Amino acid sequence: MKRPTRRTGLFLVITGALFWGVGGTVSQKLFQQYEIDVNWLVTTRLLIAGILLLTVQFFWKDRSQVFGAWKNRKTAVQLIIFGLFGMLAVQYTYMASIKYGNAAVATLLQYLAPVMIIIYLILRKQSVLTRQDLLTASLALGGCYFLLTNGSISDLSVPAPAIVWGVLSGLALAFYTLYAVPLLKQYDSLVIIGWAMVIGGFTLSFIHPPWQMEFTGLTIDAYLSLVFVIIFGTMIAFWFYIESLQSLSPKETSLLGSLEPLAAVLTTVFWLKEPFGFFQWIGAACIIGMIILLALNKKSSSQSEQTKAFQN
N vs C: which end of the chain shows fewer Cβ within 10 Å? Predict the structure, then answer.
């Protein structure tokens, strides 16, 4: 297969990041305007997007890997754990944070995952504390303070459930970023992501089967929003990002990936008209600055690649 050009890679990663960010905002619209159930959306999103990604792998890449991942018992167990406690946990907590708050805050809180990974590695003595780590943590903590309080510690500007789910989303993302490393060394990203989505969606379907949904009250706009979240905001976003790694460096993809929280913030504020105070803008800028700082750090580039390859 012909290697994509640099221009193609830039188009793919920018488009994928924007789809990720806007997809969160569209999900918020579905929750607030059409009262779509979080369990149903997560179930349907994971199942359809996962099957589509595996289909891409089967027809356009190494098809032997699609079912080859299940031939080794140890790998199969790891894949199930990753699907349940990694992919499903991240998707559900992220969507729940959007439902109780908004896409901007949910996305920014999820981006605390790299700092959580740094703390974990230091506690496990697998890494040493550096000035870079201190600056990163300071930006993250300062950003969270301004984002969640809007400068007033006596009154939270974001509902408490949204904060709890958002922090849990960051923790879940940190877990599966670390847990996915051995799996990624054996199989293509599309195989791991696709099966993890199918496993997560299949499991959640026992709680809320995807066919149990009242569709009669939905408008054409609601259907289009659902298609965007599932196809563009999930399947195509993942696919485009992974394909961009063939022609761009991990540092470049991580830097351009920071367009995701920016897109989520801008569309939430200017499209859905969510209130966003002056100090919240400062908080958002701190967290986005933290993302760029991590991407620019050569030692963090591989970590950033792993994090972004499984985002949202």
Answer: N
